[in-house]
Design brief:
Length: about 120
């Protein structure tokens, strides 16, 4: 169905708090997932992105969720549908047209970086 979601993931550690973002892209039976510490800004610089293990489809629909085993708190901060400019999603390089509020425009991922135009 070409859905995507952007999750803010807060982890409370004893030494410091960590906030990162999980970018999920529906891919049939699950979601391809990448981690970012900064969000790309439209027509801004590229930001680092790293692939994570695939997430279950249910994460497209959770609005807020406390994670088990002290893994933190997740809040969905953006979501929508995407149009893939390629025939399939290549984990290393792809371009998606996103319709979100924070991520709106052409999301381009190449290697370990992404940008929004």
């Amino acid at each position: 169905m070409n859905r995507w979601a952007l999750l803010e993931h807060k982890i409370d550690n004893l030494n410091q708090d960590e906030i990162h973002y999980d970018f999920l892209v529906e891919n049939g039976k699950d979601c391809l997932t990448w981690k970012m510490f900064h969000l790309p800004k439209k027509n801004g610089r590229s930001v680092e992105i790293s692939q994570q293990s695939n997430h279950r489809l249910i994460w497209l629909f959770h609005v807020e969720k406390e994670l088990s085993r002290n893994r933190g708190f997740v809040k969905r901060i953006d979501y929508g549908f995407y149009i893939n400019s390629e025939k399939n999603l290549n984990n290393d390089q792809f371009s998606l047209l996103l319709d979100g509020k924070l991520l709106m425009g052409l999301f381009i991922k190449t290697g370990n970086s992404c940008k929004l135009t």
